[in-house]
Amino acid sequence: MQDSIKACLDCHSMCLRMATTFCLEQGGRHVEPKHLRLMLNCAELCQTSANFMLSDSPLHGRVCLICAEACEACAKSCEQVGDMRECVEECQSCAKSCRAMT
Amino acid sequence: MQDSIKACLDCHSMCLRMATTFCLEQGGRHVEPKHLRLMLNCAELCQTSANFMLSDSPLHGRVCLICAEACEACAKSCEQVGDMRECVEECQSCAKSCRAMT
Amino acid sequence: MQDSIKACLDCHSMCLRMATTFCLEQGGRHVEPKHLRLMLNCAELCQTSANFMLSDSPLHGRVCLICAEACEACAKSCEQVGDMRECVEECQSCAKSCRAMT
Amino acid sequence: MQDSIKACLDCHSMCLRMATTFCLEQGGRHVEPKHLRLMLNCAELCQTSANFMLSDSPLHGRVCLICAEACEACAKSCEQVGDMRECVEECQSCAKSCRAMT
């Protein structure tokens, strides 16, 4: 579970930072509503997932499953937008880690 | 959706306030680990659900479903602990509202 | 304090919703990095302020003061960007309410 | 700033985990209202501080300052309660790191 908490915190940090700095500064496809929303939603769900694991919630597996789906959707969107390889990798790695918790 | 956002915000406020003031001050069964954790987890998930609806996330239905389960578990725990009727009602009402979003 | 909690929750909802739906869909000045960041920061600080008041934290006055500053900066930015009167009013009202808590 | 973000995330994880698992399971002084509230408030403010640094908010210095105060109060409370050395150290280290950002 330690690994999965770390993956969620890392993915939260990456998505929030990229959304509010890189994407906003790049503009164009990077601020397309669906993409930026996904980035912010993914960041928030990673935070919630981490918090549910940290507090040993019986619902953590359920939250991790949706978190994995958010990460996969975010990775896909980052690939389509381009220039976001680091974010793609963090999301894919977090998705894998979250699926292992379900 | 407006009603459901309001229900989530109300339930978040109720659970967070009751957990950190009433339950901690009462002690005894009110600070039993499973109960207090459920109260805090329910508060956090209600907040996340509200945020996903506010940002029109395509995952909001999925988050609302887990939120409904957290609210139902929290209502049950509050009933067993006793002296928490207001919280039971808020959780049941939020659970119903969240299920309508799924 | 009840009024101030309500003002923070209302302002959080308004800023998060406007940032992730209206602003992203409008584009142009509405997605200018400083503006959108302020909207998201204001939303988050309003949430934290509400949570500190709900849990009766001795630090709530300190958090409310920064929240008031975030709301004032956000109101100003919304005025400059234009077409955001509702958000301006919510931010000004929350700033006033938060200042009364300090 | 990277170090300070990491310190906040580490302190958030430590305080949330200890509050919702160790403290609740120990009971007694560990669930004394002032102590547990401080733990939860400290965890939340560390999260908000991290998010404000990650999103490059102009208000991050202000938020870091209150975060440092919350961490110092939490470290003191953990020392008085006892058996919480790890948490004391994490809070002191985060307080120092946050003060450097102000």
From TrEMBL, chains A, B, C, D:
<dbReference type="InterPro" id="IPR005560">
    <property type="entry name" value="Csp_YhjQ"/>
</dbReference>
<dbReference type="Pfam" id="PF03860">
    <property type="entry name" value="Csp"/>
</dbReference>
<protein>
    <submittedName>
        <fullName>Four-helix bundle copper-binding protein</fullName>
    </submittedName>
</protein>
<dbReference type="InterPro" id="IPR044543">
    <property type="entry name" value="YHJQ-like"/>
</dbReference>
